[in-house]
Amino acid sequence: MKKIAVLISGQGSNLGAIVRASVAQDWPGRVVAVVSNRADARGLQLAREHGIATAVLDHKAYADRAAFDAALAGTIDRFAPDLVVLAGFMRILTPGFVARYEGRMLNVHPSLLPAFSGLHTHRRAIEEGCKVHGATVHFVSAELDHGPIVAQAVVPVLAGDDEAALAARVLAAEHVLYPRAVRWFLEGALQLKDGRVTHRGHEPQGWLAEPAA
Ligand code: GAR
Q1: Which of 17, 111, 175, 201 is the most exposed place for a label (fewest CB within 10 A)?
Q2: pLDDT tens over the chain, length 213 residues
């Protein structure tokens, strides 16, 4: 059974989607640890309810980014994960940390990368008059929000959408997208070559998200 460590900073709804899918679909892997930089992250409670080990490392307690990332790596490595999953982990990572988990660390970002890396993606998509928006799962590389793309889900931007409405639509799409991408990784279905990711079984890696029921 492969081991997944999930890093969170907030509510952990993607964490919940991954944990539920791993059990319901009987994946060849399970979430064995949830690590947060915030003690009040709601996702920690979700992890405890599922009997998953948790750890909190407050980034403010460390002198600089490098010291925090070194402690974070030490915590993660105690669980010897095959895959590190960033699920709403709102920290910029040092190149050394990224290199340590190269090819085995995924992130979900709430935009169709390479559009709208960084923050406030939904507001920016509305301001630009985009007609579609979405979410991306990618391998983490040293450049923020720029790693090789594993999968993308597209949602419409509807007239009258505000930031909250669009964010909710994207998040619902993430809850399908991210578990699927993680399962592919665990199954060994992903091939990373020349900065591009393909699915060995030719499953579609991009799709229009189903509207929420
Ligand atoms: C998600 O929308 C995720 O894409 C975003 O944070 C949210 C976390 O939600 N991540 C980023 O913005 C990373 N740059 P969750 O805690 O409910 O999973």
Answers
A1: 201
A2: 999 999 999 999 999 999 999 999 999 999 999 999 999 999 999 999 999 999 999 999 999 999 999 999 999 999 999 999 999 999 999 999 999 999 999 999 999 999 999 999 999 999 999 999 999 999 999 999 999 999 999 999 999 999 999 999 999 999 999 999 999 999 999 999 999 999 999 999 999 998 765
Task: Tell me which residue has its CA closest to atom 8 in ligand 1.
Answer: 88
Q: How is the chain split into domains, by residue range?
A: 1-101, 107-137+146-213
Mutate to test the pocket of ligand 1, among 6, 7, 13, 85 (most ligand atoms within 8 A of CB): 13
Q: pTM here?
A: 0.97
DSSP three-state, residue 106: strand
What does the buried/exposed string (b/e) look like for 136-149 if buried means 16 or more CB atoms within 10 Å of the residue's CB? bbbbbbeeebebbb
CATH classification of 1-101 is 3.40.1010.10, yes or no?
no
